[in-house]
Amino acid sequence: MLGELLSYWPFVLGLLATGVISGIAAGLLGIGGGAIIVPALASALALLGYDSDVVQHIAVGTSLAIIIPTGIASARAHDKRGAVDHRILKLWAPVVVVATFVGGLMAGLYTGDVLRIVFGVVALFIAANIVLPFQERLMGHLRDSALTHRISAAVVGYISALMGVGGGSLSVPTIHAFGASMHKAVGTGAAIGVFIALSGTLGFIISGWSVEGRPPLSLGYINIVALVLIGVTAALCAPLGAALAHKLQQRTLKIAFAVFLTLVGLNMIWKAIAG
């Protein structure tokens, strides 16, 4: 019995470390931390012997649930600094909620490998867009179009649900391309991530409600143990990241994040192909 309990300690410590890193990243870059949480949690659950298909769904769904407290902490910290554009938030929020909920409901229709490929391909796109901001050149002239904002919100919401991210990696460069400063884009992206996380979590609870082979203490595709351990730690660390975001060079941060996303994206695609 003691040996069995001790065997879970590396898993617990790994979840806590993931919470610290994802929380700082949430505040620093306006992301929900899912780009870190999903691969880390999926790997941890796979090491415990759970089915690879269920593992990816649990990682994605739980990541969205974790982003709720992380996103709230990050968004509040940015809003106190006046870095949330409430006009853009009002345009995006209703559409994001619907699109993310639909994505969460449909996630159960896809295999784990499909979710891995979606994560990997979009991660590579985001990394490329960070280094070579082609999105700004393509969309900058549409910054005053409410329809373009809403279409962007729908795309970001749906893809974010399938990836298990708060959408910041997609919404931040999009909002920046529409003319917002980088700090405003990061703060607004963090606030949008809260709506994505709330709606996506509900979708994953419903779509995974009766699925077999889930880890113990799972509500649909949401694992409560990982939610608590990573969520609390990440929420505590998010304000630290937000404070750092206003002190450090954004270009350096973006390049580092792009490198990280490239490695994670390639790894996800390799796992799906190698099977």
From TrEMBL:
The chain crosses the membrane at residues 12-42, 54-77, 89-111, 117-134, 155-178, 190-209, 221-243, 255-273. GO terms for cellular component: plasma membrane. Its main location: membrane. Keywords: Cell membrane, Membrane, Transmembrane, Transmembrane helix. It is a multi-pass membrane protein. It is found in: Cell membrane; Membrane. Belongs to the 4-toluene sulfonate uptake permease (TSUP) (TC 2.A.102) family. This is Probable membrane transporter protein. It comes from Devosia insulae DS-56.
